[in-house]
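Forum: Protein Structure Q&A
Topic: Joint prediction for protein chains with partners

I've read a bunch of threads here and the consensus seems to be that you should model interacting components together rather than docking separate models afterwards. I'd like to see that in practice. Below is the full input, 480 residues plus whatever partners are listed. Could one of the regulars post the assembled result?
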Amino acid sequence: MSRPGLGGSAVSVLELRGVSKTYGQEPAAVRALAGVDLSVRGGEMVAVMGPSGSGKSTLLTIAGSLEDPTSGEVLVCGMALAGMPRGRRARLRRRVIGYVFQDFNLLPGLTAAENAALPLELDGVAVPKARAAALAALAALGVAGRAGWFPDQLSGGERQRVAIARAVVGERRLLLADEPSGALDSVNAGEVMRLLHEACQRGVAAVVVTHDAQLAAWADRIVLLRDGRMTGHTTRPPGPESLLIPRETR
Amino acid sequence: MGPLSPALNLVANHFYAEYYARHDAEHGVAVSVPHVLLALLSEGPKYGLQLREEFEAGTGEVWPLNVGQVYKTLGRLERDGLAESDGTGQDGREKTGQKRFRITPRGAEALAAWLRTPPDLTSPPRDELVMKVLVAARVPGTDAHEVIQAHRVYLLELMQQWTRLKEGEARDDLSLALVVDAEIFRLDAVIRWLDAAEVRLARAAAAPPQPASAPAPVPAPQLRRLGARR
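Posted by a regular:
Agreed with the consensus. Here's the joint model:
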């Protein structure tokens, strides 16, 4: 597979077109998603909010090609996932998509640097090159000093930083995060969102699923799901300066 | 959406008839300008214009204050013996702009007492959004969920703006960071209330309570006692 270009943000990194997902058979079928359209450009962070059972996590697993939609199309970096051979799809997952989970999912027997380098090594990248990329990712997330530490020696906030480093290591274009702040306190949870947002500013596209409005507010766009349907979204609001006292009124 | 359930009617009638007048009297001013001015004067004597600038800087430049308001408040503080001034013009007549104000011992006591007195949160404020959702639930042909969604999107956009501020200017400005956090938590609470309201309305629509099983109205004095214990 040719490596997808890392060019501008004109092309959507992720595009869902009329995606529906139904589990089970009628009459007991459960419709998790119904005709969802979503387009996320490089550099953009989209938060998906909705009550339990609204289809948030299903949307994420379909976007990450871990599950197929019942109908509709999924394109990652302009490539349709439907009909893509299994091997090619697995490579796309390894090279282009990074995942951040609620409970970090770091391997306990590996150091922070080894955890962060793992996706590259699995993809056949030579160990020294993978390690260098992992150290760069750890440095970008402010945990370079923890490279040789094991997960159980790290605080919750540090573990999630390592998990984000693992998700963005190399040249990943799409970051998928499911409740990435986990059980962190509000200050550390905000910090995780700030780091994800910074990753986006470096060109990555991100979809973050959360039920927490404070965390969703870090996103450039918030999409609301209910009963598997998109029921609304925010538009890019005016800049924060509008909240401050206008100088001319003083 | 049909008419309000008896429980919602109860809430609407009690909260919005009983507390309107009280709220206006007790919660009319969101920020206590006199006490913030006393706090600034507790650092040392200051002029009126200087106080206005420091007030705005100290509240993260989010709460505007005009000069007239500053001098009017300083006049009251002086009248009540909480502050004093040393400024008189060359002709012996007082010129407000040239006055330097300082806090008195009584003013310092009043400031200390104010800092430790919890604001009165016992009675529900008159909240326009709560009123709109209550009204939406009883206007025939109105989809209360659609109304809630419109408010939710607006509030989320506001939260995005405050979060941008947190990410930018507030990173190096403690006063602003505290104000921004307060706003974000307040908006978050309103969004959570909208979520809860949506669930309640859906449940009420699915299984409207029978009149016979409706709870007896809670007398207003009991509500007030419950509030006073908080």
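The first strand of chain A starts at residue 12 and ends at 23.
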